[in-house]
Structure formats: structure tokens, C-alpha cells
Amino acid sequence: MPMEAAALPKFLLLDQDDRVLGHCLDAEDAFVEAPHDDQDVTIELLGCLPSQRMRNYLSGSKRYRQRNPLDVGGLRMLDLAGEPLADFWVGELFDWRPSTIDPQRVDVVADWGWDSPHASSRHVWEHWRTARPDRPDLWAGYTGADREEWLTIVRLQNRWRTRQPDRLPGRTYDLSGSHVTDKAGFYLAVGEAINGPGGYFGCNLDALNDCLRGRFGARTPFTLIWHDFQIARESLVTPFDGPDEPSTYYDVILSILQDHDVAVVLR
User: I need a labelling partner for 136 at 20 to 30 A (CA). Which of 53, 73, 228, 258 fits?
Assistant: First the structure.
């Protein structure tokens, strides 16, 4: 029988071999104010149903734990359907107690920090957790750091996106440029042009280069029709000092696309 919605885990605690150590209902401080500071940051995993291996570790003596380390590897955030969104680093477990949620469960405290999401981005993650994108441009209402965080989620969840063979060369893709007002907007738009809502096709210039070499949904040569291109041309004006003459971020994008035999049609 399926688990009741209230008992569905939001997180999986994993070992370094990607095996599940525990199913956790929630986490305190998963979203932190300053994840990149040098100060120690902890996370409290609430209502964890431990595997037998984890149960043995938590109930064992100090000597037992030294001889049988858990080798914690990460924390996997899940959406409401139980599908993975992202993996984050988790360090040593250093405190635990019976959970008030369920006596068969435990609350665990662990090291947390360097790649954890920022507190201000919680609403972006909740958007994805409750409903993944089912149409293009759902990111368009976000700006600044929120749009960057949406791109981070797109990049991280690409690991689990069902990989189909690259579509054959010669295809035509339409890039909706009406919201390409910043760098993140371009990568989100081109990702959706190639791979549909929530699709990934690079998150910076190096990644775009990699995607254009194949294995990310499309094989070159192909045609990219860039609608409302003038918005990007006027917005992506960060200067670049190229080998010949200064250019803008927009110019560099066009150059990379053309270098990979992408015929860009500007409209």
C-alpha cells in the first residue's frame, strides 16, 4: 500500500555508495542563512526511519561505531512524488535521539554546510518540490538570485532526468527570448528550447560548450530560431576581452553556437 502523504519522506540519508541509510520526514536548517561561511553549520534530520545498518550504528557502543562507520555520503531532497531533486553533502552524525514523531524513528544531527541551499531560496525549491515545471517560462517571474537558484535546480536534477538519445542533426528549435534579461535567463530558455520545460542545456559558457558536443538532447548541426533576440542583445552586455576585439556576453554566446555549427536565426 502507498504511504500516506503525511508520512512521505522529504529526504533520504545516503552512504558514500548511494545506499539509503534512512528515510527522513523533514529537516531543520536545511536552508541556511550563510552556507558558504567558515562557521560550522548543522542540520537536524527529523523523523528518520533508519535502515538496519543505521539502527545498529546508532544503538551500538562507541567501539562498535568506530569499527563499523556509516560513511555518510549525502542527503537527497525528494519531491512530492518521491523523485530526487538534488543531493547535498552531509558530514558526520554526532547526535541522535528518539523522534517525537514516531518512536520507531530518530531525529539526527549532522554536519551540514558548503553546498546547502540558502534560506532566501526556499520558495524556489518548494516550487519544484510541489510541482515540477510542466510548461515553459515558469521561471520568468523570478529575478536575480531566485532565477539563479532555479537554474541550480535545473542543473542538479538533470542527473535524474530520463535520458533519451540525442535528436538527430538538422532539427530546428525555437528559443523564446522574451525573458532573457540576464545570463540565467538565457540558459533556462535554451534548456527549455532543446529539452522542454525544466530542461537543461548548460549553465555557463563552458557547460554550453559541453552540451553542444552531444549527449544533452541535441546533435549539431541544428537551427536555433531565437525569438525576441534584441532583449538579450541589450541585456547581456557584460564585456569580454576576446583575442581580436572586445565583445559582450551575448556576442560570445553567438560565437559558441556558430562554432558548433548551430545556425542561429535572429527574429
Answer: 258
